[in-house]
Amino acid sequence: MKKTYFILLAFILTSLTGTLLAQTSTQTIRGQVIDKQSQSPLPGATVILVGTTPPAGASTDAEGRFRITEVSPGRYDIKISFLGYKEALLPNVVVTTGKEVVLEIGLEENVNALKEVVVSGTKKNETKNEMTSVSARSFSMEEVNRYAGGRSDPARLAANFAGVSSPDDSRNDIVIRGNSPTGVLWRIEGLNVPNPNHFATVGTTGGPVSAINTNVLRSSDFFTSAFPAEYGNANAGVFDLGFRNGNSEKREYTVQFGALTGLEAGAEGPINKEKGSSYLFAYRYSFTGFAQALGIPIGTTATPFYQDLSFKINGGETKFGRFTLFGLGGTSTIDFLHNKIDSTDIFADPTKDSYFTSNLGLVGLKHFIRVGERSYFSTVIGGTYSSSNFNFDSVSKADHSITRTLENRTTQVHYSIGTSFNSKINSKLFIKIGALDEIIDLNLFYRQKRYDASWNQIWDYNDFTSLVQGYVQAKYSFNDRITLNAGVHSQLLTLNNSFAVEPRAGLKIKLNDRNSLSLGYGMHSQMQPTDVYYYRSLKPDGTYDEGNRNLGFTHSQHFVLGYDVLPAADWRIKAEVYYQFLSDVPVTVSPSSFSMLNSGASFNPNNEGYLVNQGTGTNYGAELTIEKFFSRGYYGLITGSLYQSKYKGSDGIERNTAFNGKFVYNVLVGKEFKVGKDKRNALSVDVKMTQAGGRYYTPVDLPASQAAHQEILKGDAYAFTQNYPDFFRLDVKAGYTLNSKKRKLSHSLFFDIQNVTNNKNVFAIRYNPITNTQNTAYQIGLFPNFVYKVQF
Q: Most buried residue among 187, 332, 488, 601 by CB atoms closer than 10 A?
């Protein structure tokens, strides 16, 4: 092991030395300018690097492509203009010597075609999705890697946005406006993905480690409510991600090493330069054992292992359209052994040996073909695979003998085909019509040993069902200042013929060049987590009740009002108020405090039967975002949310949900210093502070737990009546980027110290069978991490 570390250190020092002795090197910015709605190229558009001396820029060719050469390393604002289209400013484009910058820029046509209109602001205010009016945010991978405390995880990046809470260091679950994380839809390249995380379990959308490699992602969209009609089967929000294309002109490589992300290698390059086809591959291998050897706390004394592979093969332009093959695969495993853990380990039970493995995979084929100059079809055919395997063994205190007490094996395969027709009717009207069919193949096996040593078979299912979705949506611009987005989404679950029709609408009014008002409404429906449908309740006569199969969709109505101000160059202030009403929530037949709105609050699978769609819930609040986009070497982001999240179970009593933290705010600031004789290198410092209200929980019934020697919670009268102390964390990140003077080579080294104050944030207050008392388990304390990246 020491030899490996020595070789790695020698490689870094050799690379840095070679860089320091080299001479001047520049880079290329190139890409394509297209009509944002029709996806048609725009020949003759002007692309200019703002503020350079001498001026640098280019015009697009017949295919809308441009190239700007001999660009020195640094950050640039790029202005794009074309007659009859709204001028756009693409801010904060980072150029290094190690990698070309390849951009795809969409421009929006002026509604008043005879009148040229210049709109103030930047494309930072826009999302890639054309149909968005409210509660949406675009983000770049540069932000994911820049912000402190992010662990190169897009889900943890989202926790910085207004309305999002994630006060849990152990998982990247996304809590949007008090909703369960199970209400979030993940989409990659148009393919719906149940859970893109390592160590994932059935019925969840989060996990301890993301399987998404940020080095292969392009700018993407994040929605927190009232999202467009093309998205279905989600009640909380949508994460719409896309893989970038590999470089279609030259081969480039990335090597990265991190204490937590492990060793990573990526390669990309052209397949056929004339057609513009390319490949992109990235592989990661975890080194968490290395992090533990350095004394870095990772939240558990057990050693997790994971690895993943991401790829995208772009077929380029052909007479049959453009074909793209993409995929992601990963595996993870962790074992908790009774003689290798301590009694305060937040994940493990010291009286048991437990073994957990999970696997995930997705592969898709995407086809894009134009129909005339204003329309196109986009189709995605693919599948996702996820599996997990739990085994629990009870360890005898007397002789340490081991008895298998629980077996849980799940496999889900989703086969899907989705297609959409997109047409720009004219400068005012754009329509999108689409359909999606997902065939869900399930294999669920779950049994638990009773006290009499017999097995209680909770799941034993191997079959399939289907979720069929269809939608139509349109964007109509009355003029350059008033835009209406409207649509209808519908879906059918063939398991029990549940059906829903969901209208959506959003209106955006630009009061002037710096102020805009937005209104949004959306009805959204979501099927239950798949394990809920197949839970079997044991009846007194020894038979099983499978009534959960008849559960319908949970419905949600979102109402949003937003106000957006651009008070100065590179500044934005955004405020939103919202109200969400949830209905037809599964609750128990007998009066109790149970509600599916609290699902996802623990690591345990859903194990409640006799459910009916009779519960309700409400979420409401106000949010504020103050943002200084990165310019003149610094940025700032302040987000705050005040909210309430309530629910009613079958007993009709209104309670706090498990996700009601009531408030959350984030403060992020960063500064970049140009260093070196020619200012081509960069030293950066980033700071993030987060404070969030403690979530509600049901307290432990200590006397009952001591008598049964297992955790028993207090009854319905105490459900979610207590809350944990407020969550607080301060993160500091420092980085240095070194751009070679001669070679096409760049180095980046980052040190990210999370929770620098070593604040003791509560993870859980629970019964401990070892001490036979109640104890408090804490989240990760001071948490140092480092990442070294080289690109060439």
A: 332
Does residue 718 contact residue 699 with C-beta atoms inside 8 Å? Answer: yes
Is the Cα dihedral 196, 202, 207, 208 positive or negative? Answer: negative
Query: Which residues lie below 8 Å from residue 698, measured CB to CB, with a gap of 6+?
Result: 713, 714, 718, 719, 720, 721, 722
pTM: 0.92
Q: One-letter amino acid identity for 26?
A: T
Q: For 158, phi and psi rounded to 5 degrees? A: -60, -25
Q: Provide the Cα torsion 162, 736, 75, 69; round to 10°.
A: -140
Is residue 750 within 8 Å of 712, Cβ to Cβ?
Answer: no
Q: Which two tokens stand for residue 775?
A: 């104890």
The rounded distance, in Å, linking the Cα atoms of 255 and 12 is 11
* Calpha distance 309→326 (Å, rounded): 11
| pLDDT of res. 242 | 95
pLDDT in tens, 631-651: 889 999 999 999 999 999 999
CA dist., res. 146 & res. 160, Å (int): 12
| Burial profile 56-83: b = 16 or more Cβ within 10 angstroms, e = fewer | bbbebeeebebebeebbbbbbbbbbbbe
Distances (CA, A) of 465 to 493, 533, 554, 602, 627: 8, 11, 18, 27, 45
List the structure tokens of 254. Answer: 């990335």
Provide the pLDDT for residue 338.
Answer: 67
Q: Which amino acid is at 542?
A: G
Distances from the Cα of 305 to the Cα of 173, 196, 199, 289, 291, angstroms: 20, 16, 10, 8, 12
pLDDT tens per residue, range 217-237: 998 899 999 999 999 999 999
| 396-406 core/surface letters (b: 16 or more CB in 10 A; e: else) | eeeeeeeeebb
Provide mean pLDDT across the span 121-146. 78
Count of Cβ atoms closer than 10 Å to residue 542 Cβ: 6
pLDDT tens column, 570-616:
899 999 999 999 999 999 999 999 999 999 887 677 889 999 999 99
Other Cβ atoms within 10 Å of 5 Cβ, number: 12
